[in-house]
């Protein structure tokens, strides 16, 4: 079985350790609060936003831990340097046992970036009838994740779209979800989903471009009325959806293409600024 952590070293609390000491076994009663961010050209993308979301997740989980951003950022630079990895995804992982013990780890994980063909052709998604218990907190949910993996494998899909009890499409199992209708972006309100960092950037850029955003959940029976759809996330950034179950969607919508181009320029500028 492939080890969850990648590279030669990982951080455990404040100490850099050999990957040989990494333990990925987690008791089912252990609460795992985590965050995943991406580094490109040795530059962490949107790191302050990711750490702020991690802090919010800890608060939502009832954990009294204050993240010292400047210190953690310095420690993470040590992790990049020790592994000699300039492009990849890093997972920040707080684990809390039922006995009150806590452990912090940071480590590189396997990255699944979309190929050029997938970016061009769009992706296929399947429905997953599930809801998060605490949608605003990034807490590992084995039931939802394992079911998503099974559906993705069986349907040969790229992602699953979570559908709630009211038959509303809220978000992806690993991503946020946007629809486009009549030149307006539609996405669920952040109170009912895990609002991603890339989602926030897209909404901000849409506002700057004069694109209206409506915050509501799109029902399954409304898909035929939608012009286009896409997901957003740390690894995929923005990916057009060409089909949800048997419902075809436009992957060349001008609003999607404009937003994607603008987002790429925004990220390139961040890399230039370091």
* CATH fold topology of the largest domain: D-amino Acid Aminotransferase, Chain A, domain 2
Q: Give the SSE order as H and E letters.
A: EEEEHHEEHEHEEEEHEEEEEH
Task: Give the count of structural domains.
Answer: 2
Beta-strand residue percentage: 25-35%
Q: What is the rounded distance between the termini?
A: 36 Å
Which whole number gives the mean pLDDT? 93
- The CATH architecture designation of the largest domain is Alpha-Beta Barrel
Structural class: alpha+beta
Discrete helix count: 6
Biggest β-sheet description = 10 strands, mixed
Q: Nearest-angstrom radius of gyration?
A: 19 Å
Question: What percentage of residues falls in helices of 4 or more residues?
Answer: 25-40%
Instruction: State the fourth-level CATH superfamily of the largest domain.
Output: D-amino Acid Aminotransferase, subunit A, domain 2
Gross morphology is: globular
Uncertain stretches of 5 or more adjacent residues: none
């Amino acid at each position: 079985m492939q080890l969850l952590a990648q590279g030669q070293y990982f951080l455990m609390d404040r100490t850099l350790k050999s990957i040989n000491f990494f333990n990925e076994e987690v008791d089912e009663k252990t609460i795992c609060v985590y965050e995943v961010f991406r580094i490109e050209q040795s530059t962490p993308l949107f790191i302050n936003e990711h750490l702020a979301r991690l802090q919010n997740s800890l608060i939502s989980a009832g954990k009294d831990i204050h993240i010292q951003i400047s210190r953690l950022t310095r420690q993470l630079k040590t992790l990049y340097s020790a592994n000699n990895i300039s492009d990849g995804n890093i997972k920040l992982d707080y684990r809390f046992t039922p006995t009150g013990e806590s452990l912090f780890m940071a480590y590189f994980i396997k990255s699944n970036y979309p190929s050029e063909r997938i970016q061009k052709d769009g992706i296929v998604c399947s429905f997953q009838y599930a809801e998060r218990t605490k949608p605003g907190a990034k807490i590992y949910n084995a039931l939802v994740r394992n079911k998503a993996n099974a559906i993705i494998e069986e349907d040969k899909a790229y992602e699953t779209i979570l559908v709630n009890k009211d038959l509303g499409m809220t978000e992806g199992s690993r991503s946020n979800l946007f629809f486009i209708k009549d030149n307006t972006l539609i996405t669920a309100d952040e109170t009912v989903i895990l609002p991603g960092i890339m989602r926030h950037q897209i909404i901000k850029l849409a506002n700057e471009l004069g694109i209206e955003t409506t915050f509501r959940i799109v029902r399954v029976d409304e898909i035929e009325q939608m012009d286009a759809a896409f997901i957003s996330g740390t690894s995929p950034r923005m990916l057009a959806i060409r089909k949800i179950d048997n419902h075809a969607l436009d992957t060349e919508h001008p609003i999607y293409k404009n937003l994607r181009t603008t987002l790429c320029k925004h990220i390139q500028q961040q890399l230039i600024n370091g």
